[in-house]
Amino acid sequence: ILLGTQSNLPTVLKNDLKTTSTIHMVVVSGQNLSILAGFMICMVTFLGRKKTVFMTLFVIVFYSLLTGLGVPVLRAAIMAVFAYLAQILGKDRSGWWVLLVTAGLMLIYNPNWLLNISFQLSFLAIFGVVVASPILAQVLKRVPEILKQDLATTISAQALVLPIIAYNFNQISLAGVFANILVLWTMPLVMVSGIITLILGTINPVLGQISGLFPGILLTYFVDIVSVFAKLPGASVAVRETSILLWIGYYLMLGALIVILYRND
């Protein structure tokens, strides 16, 4: 999860992750980065805005270096830095255009990225987490606080990346939303405790083994939940090749819904 290395994952687990649309959690992606940065933003209540800004920027840069400064991570990091800065500095309602301008400047640098699946998924996932999920969270204000943020984040991210996944992989996970809701909350904790374990493990292997117990418990839960949902009847359905116009219409309707909810907020 930290380094995006999948070579040691069992084939059965890989298939279960794809079936439940949770594969994004074990690859280096924009959504993984946005989840980690989002966790840091939650610290604003305890640390204040200025300290949270520096901590979030440090985490983004550190994670980018940790994963080898791959192009997908760099793209996601640049978009996340500007989008989260707007959010942290109290410009929540300006976050969407900050993200759009950042993505636009990146496309001016390399227009071919527009057709790159990794860029599309990174942009849409970050847009969902940073822009759409706070709006949806207001709609879900009657939902218990412990579930509201994860539910809003999951639905927003899944709704925005669904057409890209369906169009490119001809598959939609019906169990994905529910599986993501149940495991998404573990990801920031796994990543933060994983980084601590990595650091302690380089100092002393015994310390690394002890600190690794916590992420180990979370990952056992993660694997079990994914396995259960992957075995449900109809967990994933094949999607026939469809016209891109259908998905353009989908995004237009989704955009209109976000605008309506935004104005009613």
Overview of this protein structure:
The chain has a two-stranded antiparallel ribbon. The longest helix has 25 residues, at 145-169. By secondary structure, the chain is mainly alpha-helical. The radius of gyration is 18 Å and the shape is globular. It contains 13 helices and two strands; from the N terminus they run H-H-H-H-H-H-H-H-E-H-H-H-H-E-H. The chain is 74% helix and 2% strand. It starts with 10 loop residues before the first helix and ends with a helix. The mean pLDDT is 79.
Share of helix, binned: over 70%
Largest sheet: 2 strands, antiparallel
Question: What is the typical, i.e. mean, pLDDT?
Answer: 79
Instruction: Give the N-to-C terminal Cα separation.
Output: 35 Å
Give short descriptive properties of this protein:
265 residues; mainly alpha; two-stranded antiparallel ribbon
Per-chain topology:
Blueprint: H1 11-19, H2 30-41, H3 44-47, H4 49-66, H5 71-88, H6 95-109, H7 117-139, H8 145-169, E1 171-173, H9 176-184, H10 186-203, H11 205-211, H12 213-230, E2 236-238, H13 244-264
Antiparallel strand pairs: 1-2
Helix pairs in contact: 1-12, 2-4, 2-5, 2-7, 2-10, 4-5, 5-6, 5-7, 6-7, 7-8, 8-9, 8-13, 9-12, 10-11, 10-12
